[in-house]
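Q: what does this look like with AH0 bound?
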Amino acid sequence: MSSQLAQLFKTGPQWVLGFMSGTSLDGVDVALVKTDGERIEELGSWITISYTNAQRKVLAEATQDALKWNWEGVRPKSFDKAERLMTLAHAEAAQKLMQFGGGETPVLAGFHGQTVLHSPPLDGQKGKTLQLGDGQLLAKELGIPVVYDFRTADMEAGGHGAPLAPIYHTALLDMEAAKRNQNEFTGVVLNLGGVANFTWQTSDQPPIAFDTGPGNGPIDEWIEKHGKGAFDADAKFALAGKVHEEKIKDWLKHPYFSTKPPKSLDRYDFSAEKLVSDMSFEDGAATLTAFSARTVLQALSSMPKKPEMVVATGGGRHNPLIMQYLRDELGDALIDASSIGWRGDAIEAEAFAFLAARSALELPISFPETTGAPEPITGGRHIATTRKR
Ligand SMILES: Nc1ncnc2c1ncn2[C@@H]1O[C@H](COP(=O)(O)OP(=O)(O)OP(=O)(O)O)[C@@H](O)[C@H]1O
Ligand SMILES: CC(=O)N[C@H]1[C@@H]2OC[C@@H](O2)[C@@H](O)[C@@H]1O[C@H](C)C(=O)O
């Protein structure tokens, strides 16, 4: 039986809303993409609505409870409160976008949810992942169908359930290659989020994608723990510290870095607490920042071909020190998403709009080379009927 939502695309590309509430717990990104699930026809409006401190606290508590729970025993009570709060924050963010956006009319929404725990497959055992997010409630609030729970089907099939953005990253790279009239093209979309991940694409083989290692996550955690804000704005603290090279050398021996992709991480697999609790505040910030950049560079150097272009996206591209480390190695190949007209802070939200359209059309959203799924498979749960408010 074909998906009821497929009907939405019978006349061609449509505006689709996409949401992302990332592992940094900084806010909700919402973006509009006009697509037929194959191509990006047009990029629409987008915004980020930051969580308030009170909201962040509820989400952080749910994340901490998830780590302690680790799939055993009773589901933590804090999940229900966090789920309702973040779902309603998504509805509010969408309303703001519709109010101040460009008048686009979405027919569907892609709702990633909030990852609170991610346990990749291990020793032949399937993995598990949990994204909080009430699809039914969001559909009711928005008055349009919603696709959510994008990662479960892939994990049930034996995949990592992440990263899922790669099919969208390749659509972006294809758009750029067409603009440049260039067929032979090796490009990378690098997401510097709480966890860092990239998609490497060339002309004559399937794309490769995986989580490269920690991104901003441990840095944010370290800054917050010292009561110095939510993140190291403009790398002020890292710039004042000394990098403990011997520690980085040691951490790079972690088996994750020698494991061949596909592979994925939980945000807390590399936590500041485990890594730098014996360092001064500034040295901790400096060492974590250098480590994140180093793991990205190491992952890039393991690719079959050197990319001509590495497009930096995600919040970490606003960190001048991470970008400097990357530029020292990559030179002019490193570019900021905005320099080619992409919206660097909206790409994950755009990706979930694109993935929602693909899910509606029952097109694959994950692949052997990106999540380790046994074959290209679709995913996502559908809320097809809505009650308008
Ligand atoms: N000016 C800045 N200086 C340093 N770091 C910054 C700056 N602006 C943003 N960041 C970093 O970017 C982070 C937010 O990044 P982003 O929104 O891409 O993460 P996310 O989407 O939550 O993560 P993920 O992709 O893992 O889900 C902040 O928490 C901070 O660490
Ligand atoms: C389990 C989970 O939520 N993973 C996120 C996280 O944030 C970045 C990286 O780790 C990536 O694997 C993924 O998100 C993006 C959107 C993805 O699936 O492509």
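The chain is about 35% helix and 20% strand. The domain at 166-340 is CATH 3.30.420.40 (Nucleotidyltransferase; domain 5).
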